[in-house]
Amino acid sequence: MMISIGYRNYISVDRIVAIISPDSRPTKNMINGARENNKIVDATMGKKTKSVIVTNSNHVVLSANSPDTIVHRTKALGMKLNFGEDD
User: Fold this and answer.
1) Which residues contact 14 (CB under 8 A, 6 or more apart)?
2) What is the pLDDT of residue 84?
3) Alpha-carbon distances of 55 from 18, 39, 75, 80, 86, rounded to whole Å
């Protein structure tokens, strides 16, 4: 299943390893390393990066949505699909 990460950009929930804030020095170093290795996807449409999504393929996805917004959408999708619940 896919969730919106802003500006008509979507990511597969199954691929997400972490959703983090871009403000720390280690995160900035990770972004720069991904950029050097062509493993970065900038989905901000020129806006300020508010969250960094790390995928299971070691790609780094930049989003203009906050980490809280993306986590909320992930949880809402999980509730909609009733993950982990037996009927």
Assistant:
1) 1
2) 52
3) 7, 10, 17, 23, 28
What gap in Å lies between CA 24 and CA 45, rounded to an integer? Answer: 22
Q: Is 20:67 a contact under the CB 8 Å cutoff?
A: yes
Could you tell me which residues come within 8 angstroms of residue 19 by beta carbon, excluding any fewer than 6 positions away? 51, 52, 53, 54, 67, 70, 71, 74
- In angstroms, the CA 50 to CA 53 distance is 10
3-state secondary structure the chain: CEEEEECCEEEEHHHEEEEECCCCHHHHHHHHHHHHCCCEEECCCCCCCCEEEEECCCCEEEECCCHHHHHHHHHHHHHHHCCCCCC
Q: Over the stretch 61-84, which tens digit does the pLDDT of each residue have?
A: 999 999 999 999 999 988 776 655
